[in-house]
Amino acid sequence: MALDELKSRLPEYAKDLKLNLSAVIGNSDLPQQQLWGTVLSCAMATGSKPVLAELEPQARELLGEQAYTAAKAAAAIMAMNNVYYRTTHLLSDHEEYAKLRTGLRMNIIGTPGVDKLDFEFWCFAVSAINGCGQCLDSHEQVLRKGGVDRETVQVAIRIAAVLQAVASVLDAEAALAG
């Protein structure tokens, strides 16, 4: 299993991350599509080769073609949106920038090809990794209005946090090894 291989690559000092990988992915109560779409979109958002190499094949196996593509699309669109909205929100004149037309194509958000709430869940998780408060608020509101409870929203945050931490450790260890 990809998860076991990923855990085996973590050094002993990251034992908590091994345990958390098991908890947030291996023992998840999320439906398979929601879980593995989140895993894939978050793995892409980390940009970590080892994380992607271990988790992408299992995501491809467990997701239908449309869900697989939509999860990757969530990572792609949020890579753009998170930079744009985080930046305009951080500007001291953010109220005025919010009035301007964005001018960026985001059609995939309206027609992702999968259940809208799954796609929102993936976008929310990627936004957690990318640190965009405005996108987090926006996607969380859609999820909550769609009937997703706070505990389930928290699961997306936990998956994002653990995968980002795993990516950071593996990438740092690779850099230290030369």
UniProtKB/TrEMBL annotation:
<comment type="function">
    <text>Antioxidant protein with alkyl hydroperoxidase activity. Required for the reduction of the AhpC active site cysteine residues and for the regeneration of the AhpC enzyme activity.</text>
</comment>
<keyword id="KW-0676">Redox-active center</keyword>
<keyword id="KW-0049">Antioxidant</keyword>
<comment type="similarity">
    <text>Belongs to the AhpD family.</text>
</comment>
<dbReference type="InterPro" id="IPR004675">
    <property type="entry name" value="AhpD_core"/>
</dbReference>
<dbReference type="GO" id="GO:0006979">
    <property type="term" value="P:response to oxidative stress"/>
</dbReference>
<feature type="active site" description="Cysteine sulfenic acid (-SOH) intermediate">
    <location>
        <position position="135"/>
    </location>
</feature>
<keyword id="KW-1015">Disulfide bond</keyword>
<dbReference type="InterPro" id="IPR004674">
    <property type="entry name" value="AhpD"/>
</dbReference>
<dbReference type="GO" id="GO:0015036">
    <property type="term" value="F:disulfide oxidoreductase activity"/>
</dbReference>
<feature type="disulfide bond">
    <location>
        <begin position="132"/>
        <end position="135"/>
    </location>
</feature>
<dbReference type="GO" id="GO:0032843">
    <property type="term" value="F:hydroperoxide reductase activity"/>
</dbReference>
<feature type="domain" description="Carboxymuconolactone decarboxylase-like">
    <location>
        <begin position="96"/>
        <end position="176"/>
    </location>
</feature>
<dbReference type="GO" id="GO:0051920">
    <property type="term" value="F:peroxiredoxin activity"/>
</dbReference>
<dbReference type="InterPro" id="IPR029032">
    <property type="entry name" value="AhpD-like"/>
</dbReference>
<keyword id="KW-0575">Peroxidase</keyword>
<keyword id="KW-0560">Oxidoreductase</keyword>
<feature type="active site" description="Proton donor">
    <location>
        <position position="132"/>
    </location>
</feature>
<dbReference type="Pfam" id="PF02627">
    <property type="entry name" value="CMD"/>
</dbReference>
<comment type="subunit">
    <text>Homotrimer.</text>
</comment>
<dbReference type="InterPro" id="IPR003779">
    <property type="entry name" value="CMD-like"/>
</dbReference>
<protein>
    <recommendedName>
        <fullName>Alkyl hydroperoxide reductase AhpD</fullName>
        <ecNumber>1.11.1.28</ecNumber>
    </recommendedName>
</protein>
<dbReference type="GO" id="GO:0045454">
    <property type="term" value="P:cell redox homeostasis"/>
</dbReference>
